[in-house]
Design goal:
Layout lengths: L1 H14 L16 E4 L3 E5 L12 H14 L7 H5 L2 H14 L7 E5 L2 H12 L4 E6 L4 H9 L3 E5 L4 H10 L4 E7 L11 H10 L3 E5 L14 H5 L6 E6 L9 E5 L1 H10 L1 H4 L6 H15 L1 H27 L4 E2 L6 E7 L1 H13 L2 E2 L2 E2 L9 E6 L6 H17 L3
The structure holds pyridoxal-5'-phosphate (PLP).
The site of pyridoxal-5'-phosphate has 14 residues, from helix 5.
């Protein structure tokens, strides 16, 4: 019977201490947030890297946009849900990425998950091979599972291995697929080498920049701007619910690829278009990202990253068995190894009013359980000092 079948599996995840629960936030997304049953917590876990999710200018744009556009889009893009607000945002995003993807056009999606499903299933047809980094995001993995293409995983960042796999591949279409910033480690893919491989082997490079868009690059245009890359072979996916502070995603690519997605991508065609008010609001988010305030927020974020890393480095030097990852992004994992140890640290911090998630297998490889800190431009130096002070105190008083 279904319910008993599910309950059996729920008991299994309980026995492994892997049951996930949702917490209820009672105030907007900010570093200091009120939580049901817990009160005020200082959090280091959102993807709101620039602190735009609760920015008053975006809240104003939302109310202004709602007066112009109402609440919903009413239909899918190909029926009647496509509006001038969507078209304007797509034109601007295409223009933003054009220095990196010549003649780029952009196509909006309701989420990055749906954009990745669209890319993998539409481009990954029977003629194609998808070469996917083994640490890629779940949405890319699900996309490769749905695709009719052959799929080859390559070990994380292993350019030499990938080169051999590409050389041996006989399908007419080859696509290399990678996260730009890996969400559990915070490291950045070697996009220049991956692009060189793509050019050498007549392949294409799909870049998922969920954690880079808005954050990397002088003007926040993401990982391609960071590396100064430009090629027609780049297929770019950026999300709009993380640093951009709203919701949604887009693909920027060669116009023919965009046209093919419009014709064939089921996660584009068979779903209601994003409300036009969100497209309207995202235009304001792009103003913030590329303007002086965005510059200043990215600079402050870098200062916070430096401060956190320096403090964690001291902790690692003083206590055994800790490891800091090689990351210059707002994603900063501290590897503790043991699952129980990571959970104990998470609870000890939580008892002190600080929320940092413990990430355990199977999300990360066995033996690499970790605390994953994510920073936002809304954090202050005092917030990071507080966090570090509590970590030092916990390690001295309750050595795990
Ligand atoms: C968050 C994320 C996505 C999914 O984006 P959503 O807009 O949240 O659906 C895709 N890829 C990566 C690497 C992500 O971190």
């Amino acid at each position: 019977m279904l319910i008993e079948h599910i309950n059996r599996q729920l008991r299994e995840i309980d026995a492994a201490a892997l049951r996930r629960k949702r917490r209820i936030g009672q105030t907007p997304c900010e570093p200091r947030q009120q939580w049901a049953g817990q009160g005020l917590m200082l959090t280091f876990c959102s993807n709101d890297y620039l602190g735009l999710a609760s920015h008053p200018r975006l809240a104003l744009a939302l109310s202004d946009g709602a007066r112009r556009w109402g609440a919903g889009s009413g239909a899918s893009h190909l029926v009647s849900g496509h509006s001038q607000a969507h078209a304007d945002l797509e034109a601007r995003l295409g223009h933003w990425l054009a220095p990196h993807v010549p003649d780029a056009q952009a196509l909006l999606f309701c989420s990055g998950y749906m954009a990745n499903i669209a890319l993998m299933t539409t481009l990954g047809d029977r003629e194609a091979t998808l070469f996917s980094d083994q640490l890629n995001h779940a949405s890319l993995i699900d996309g490769t599972r749905l695709a009719r293409a052959s799929v080859q995983l390559f070990s994380h960042g292993d350019i030499a291995a990938l080169s051999h796999q590409l050389a041996a591949c006989r399908t007419p279409v080859k696509l290399i697929v990678t996260d730009a910033v890996f969400s559990m480690d915070g490291d950045v893919a070697d996009l220049p080498s991956l692009l060189a491989l793509a050019e050498e082997h007549d392949a294409w490079l799909v870049v998922d920049d969920a954690h880079g868009f808005g954050v990397l690059g002088e003007r926040g245009r993401g990982s391609l701007e960071h590396f100064g890359l430009s090629s027609e072979r780049l297929i770019y996916m950026g999300t709009l619910g993380k640093a951009a502070g709203v919701s949604g995603a887009f693909v920027a690519a060669h116009p023919t690829i965009i046209q093919w997605l419009v014709q064939r991508a089921r996660s584009y065609i068979y779903t209601t278009a994003m409300p036009p008010v969100l497209a309207y609001t995202l235009n304001e988010a792009l103003d913030l990202i590329e303007g002086p305030e965005g510059m200043q927020r990215r600079a402050h974020l870098q200062t916070m990253i430096g401060q956190l890393r320096e403090g964690l480095r001291e902790l690692v030097a003083q206590h055994d068995g800790l490891r800091l990852m090689n990351s210059f992004t707002p994603i900063q994992p501290l590897i503790l190894g043991d699952n129980e140890r990571a959970l104990a640290m998470e609870s000890a911090l939580e008892a002190r009013g600080i929320r940092v998630p413990a990430i355990r297998p199977p999300t990360v490889p066995a033996g690499t359980a970790r605390l994953r800190f994510t920073l936002s431009a809304s954090h202050t130096q005092v917030d990071v000092d507080n966090l570090l002070q509590h970590m030092h105190d916990i390690w001295i008083k309750e050595p795990a």
